Amino acid sequence: MNRTLLIAILIAALAAGTLLALNGDRSGGTAMAAAPRVATVLPEPQTLPEFSLTDHTGAERDRSFLEGQWNLVFFGFTHCPDICPTTLATLSSARKELAESYAGTPPRIVLVSVDPERDTPEKLAEYINYFGEGNLALTGPEASIRELTEPLFVYFNRVPLENGSYTVDHSSVVLLVDPEGRFHALFSGPHNAADYVHDLPIVTSQT
Amino acid sequence: MRSLPLLLSLCLLSACGPADDSPLVVYGLEVTPPRPGMNMSAGYFEIHNNTGDAVRITRAESPQFEAVELHETTTVDGVSRMRPVDALVIAPGTTLKLERGGKHLMLMRPVEASLETVELRLYSGDTLLLSVNTQVASD
Questions:
Q1: pLDDT in tens, A83-112
Q2: Looking at chain A, which residue has its C-alpha nearest residue B75?
Q3: Do A81 and B139 count as a contact with CB atoms less than 8 A apart?
Q4: ipTM rounded to 2 decimals
Q5: CATH classification at residue A48
Q6: Which domain holds residue A101?
Q7: Closest Cα partner for B64 from B132, B138, B139?
Q8: Do A82 and B36 touch (CB under 8 A)?
Q9: How many domains does chain A have?
Q10: Most B CBs within 10 Å: which of A74, A82, A188, as the mutation test of the B interface?
Q11: What kind of architecture, by CATH, is found in domain B4-135?
Q12: Does A179 touch chain B (CB under 8 A)?
């Protein structure tokens, strides 16, 4: 599956680049098919790996819990003062803006913790609810988290700091998971709310 | 060589604005609120060096936080990394930007549960370069 997924992502990235170039060539025209600005859509959605994690309410969740709605999945941690809250605030802002125009419920924000030692369900509950209602946060043993991240080529690595604490290096990508629980598209950073507001209605209506 | 600390002292405890020709001028200072359950914030601003000498900010402190660190986030090949840095260096006549996803201050362990105003003090070694205040931002 890994090889298939990697090839799919590469093809999607090439297609996105081609679309961008075509749109650029047509910038002087009046009629243009709607195309995502930054999202890379996979040619074929890929079923997510099986996983079993604990959500911010303490409930056990597996892949099926992502089904039934669109999800924006970000991998981060609560002790990250800069890029993680900035990304979550960006997604939250986009959701609020989309709520007024989007057909249906805007995609749910899903935070998958890459710092299970510090990110308990209780901590995650306080944190994720700050970024809006209906969001989901997942944590669990590191091995369980890696069952989800590694097949998706999502990286994270704990790094000790001189002050005795540690930080976690991690992929900054946001994955769009469709209502069938499949990896459908990805947003690479830097993340901008306007890009999500532009792209999500296009990408989620193309199924 | 002019005395940089003396020049900089002119700006101490002042609210520097965009038209300010003080030795160091801070623009757009923003301190994010600590998220519920968390004990840290981030500080962002632009700082302009009007002097003819490079300025090195080697540490920062705030009465409202137990500790403040100088940090930098870098994202390379899609992986974000945050590390402490030894100093923020502002070349003569230039502006250094502390921004989301880049250099920033990490403010740890607020001393009070409710934060409204934050004072930031920037140092070069033991020399206080600048002190500025701001309201805590909202997301």
A1: 999 999 999 999 999 998 888 889 999 999
A2: A172
A3: no
A4: 0.81
A5: 3.40.30.10
A6: 2-204
A7: B132
A8: no
A9: 1
A10: A82
A11: Sandwich (2.60)
A12: no
